[in-house]
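[09:14] KT: can someone run the structure on this one? pasting the chain below
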Amino acid sequence: MELIRIDDPGDLRLAAYRDIRERDLTGRQGRFIAEGKVVLDVLLSAARFKAESVLVLENRLAGLAAVLAKAPPALPVYVVSAAAIDAIAGFPMHRGILALGARRMPQPAEALLDELPARTLVVVLVGISNHDNIGSIFRNAAAFGADAVFIDRTCCDPLYRKAIRVSVGAALKVPFACFDDTAAFVRELCGRGYDQFALSPGGVADMRTLKPGERVALYLGAEGEGLPRDLLARLTTVRIAIRTDFDSLNVAAASAIALHHFSDRG
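[09:31] RB: done, structure tokens below
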């Protein structure tokens, strides 16, 4: 790595880090921001995405030695003061660690399916537009060993800064791909021999009674409205047993319970 001290917040080398919250909304032309020590570690360790540079608060540098040792030799590491990093970011940057990553070329869902092992657990997300939920589901997917996450075009971006942070870097580690036509994707998985389960509070089957096979696809929908009715009609609907006097679980919590169950397939 190459340590570069910068004192001027207006230095053009830091342009991609400027006004982070505004740029979160307008996009970064094929790049994303990774925030925090743990996330940076995943970015450099998993190597699914290329790190282009790192921006570090001067008093955090010493504690990053083991993480930055994983960086490519030519990776620029910009070191700045607290006043400078706050001016660059546009708000108090207490974590003091940012990295700029390059997005990969979007991978077709079918191509990712081709890469998966014979014994596979995948998560399919439809209509989830909350970045906290997306990040939490990716974190759960990593924790319970899901092989991939597939998202429809109405879901929010897993590489949005907050989603990456909430996922604790799992969005940079767990392979994912998008699909356009949900009905066609269901047919694709059916043709590949997947047992497909749709999580719903009104599911017909109690999850605890299910003994899935070698290939499992778990579908999760948006908070509140859940999965579309036409999709539920095509799949085996599954419920998590909870008290009858309570409505439902948050989709992120439900994903953790379901992934724990389906990850144990004997």
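[09:33] KT: thanks! The chain has ten helices and twelve strands.
[09:34] RB: yep, looked fine to me
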